[in-house]
Design goal:
- The chain is mostly helical and 354 residues long.
- It has a domain of 204 residues.
- The chain is 54% helix and 0% strand.
- It contains 15 helices and no strands.
- Helix 3 packs across helix 4, helix 3 crosses helix 5 and helix 3 runs parallel beside helix 11.
- The longest helix has 32 residues.
- It starts with 33 loop residues before the first helix and ends with a helix.
């Protein structure tokens, strides 16, 4: 997941960004899909890796220009999250909700939906369920589905090469969050969506999320629901409206803001730590690694070298001890008939044929 995970949902505010991006244009750029990225990866030599390579900033990011549309919200939410250290904003219910929401929103929305379902098409679910999972991803404030998918597909196409949007081989800060707070001119063009996320934008649901700041209203709406729910419960339990306000704020700060910020850093760690520290099961052309800590925090995404070696597989843990909660959830969906065409790891497919 890089990512690409491109986390922070501060998309270009103008609706004109994608209003002409409907994917029927006869002059549209060649489409890049999960399958074409995977095939291109397999065609590249695995004889050398990028582990000791030093990269320059992507050409489209030079000269470096601060991206205030992303930087201000990222910085602001970190300051708001710091309110969690004040006793007034603390409740054990809020803490528990933050932990649960990391699974519910970040795993279902980002790792399962944005990454393994939409970007790599490792399985298929009914459209109503896919759209629900995508809304969970929007509630993580890690960009709209189309933009997240497009940036992640670029990452796989050029992993740990200069065009990679967020390789830590530039420097660790760049790979973690720097790529978000500096402008990348390519990501503002309609052709960027046309080439890397046209398959998503054929769906009116995803197209609508790119326009009129709908993604922002979804995030703010879900935050308001958490606050109002906490307010109502606190008021009902104590009979004091101000106790309800305090409880509602603890739910908002912990269950939404802290969870959002922690979720960002977990996703960003896949992009940064996952290309710097860890072990490798496969020789790939990039510096991707498997990192146990990141894998636990990121619901299995930390088995990043496995993923780069077999991108379309819905399972990232390839050894019996490489725990992958996202894969377990996909298997559960498959068992109850909600997930179909689930792609297994190549290593398991080869064993089955033997």
């Amino acid at each position: 997941m890089t990512r690409a995970t491109p986390p922070s949902a501060m998309l270009e505010p103008e609706s004109s960004l994608v209003e002409n991006a409907a994917p029927a244009s006869a002059t549209a750029a060649p489409e890049t899909t999960a399958l074409s990225v995977d095939v291109a990866e397999e065609q590249l030599s695995a004889e050398t890796t990028a582990a000791n390579k030093k990269l320059d900033y992507p050409e489209e990011a030079q000269p470096l220009v601060f991206n205030w549309r992303y930087a201000i919200p990222i910085i602001a939410l970190h300051f708001v999250a710091a309110l969690a250290f004040f006793p007034y904003f603390f409740s054990w219910t809020g803490v528990a909700l933050a932990v649960f929401n990391l699974y519910f929103f970040n795993m279902l929305g980002i790792t399962l939906c944005y990454h393994r379902l939409l970007t790599h098409q490792g399985f298929v679910v009914p459209k109503w369920l896919e759209h629900f999972f995508a809304l969970c991803g929007v509630c993580c404030l890690e960009d709209t589905p189309a933009r997240w998918v497009a940036i992640h597909r670029i990452h796989h196409k050029h992993s740990d090469e200069q065009p990679d949007p967020h390789s830590p081989l530039v420097n660790f800060f760049w790979g973690h969050v720097g790529w978000l707070v500096f402008e990348h001119r390519e990501h503002r063009h309609v052709v960027f969506y046309e080439k890397y996320a046209r398959d998503l934008l054929r769906d009116p649901f995803y197209f609508a999320l790119e326009r009129y700041l709908l993604w922002l209203w979804v995030y703010l709406g879900h935050a308001l629901l958490f606050y109002l729910g906490g307010l109502a419960i606190g008021w009902a339990m104590t009979g004091d409206v101000w106790q309800g306000v305090q409880f509602g704020l603890s739910i908002l700060i912990w269950g939404v803001v802290v969870r959002t910020v922690v979720g960002w850093h977990i996703t960003w760690s896949v992009n940064s730590v996952g290309h710097v520290w860890g072990y490798r099961n496969y020789e790939t052309r990039d510096a991707s690694t498997n990192n146990f800590v990141v894998a636990i925090l990121a619901h299995g995404e930390g088995w990043h070298n496995n993923h780069h070696a077999d991108q379309r597989s819905a399972a990232h843990g390839h050894k019996w001890w490489e725990v992958d909660p996202t894969w377990m959830t996909i298997r559960l969906l498959e068992k109850v008939g909600l997930a179909k065409n689930v792609i297994r790891p190549k290593c398991l497919r080869k064993e089955a044929k033997a």
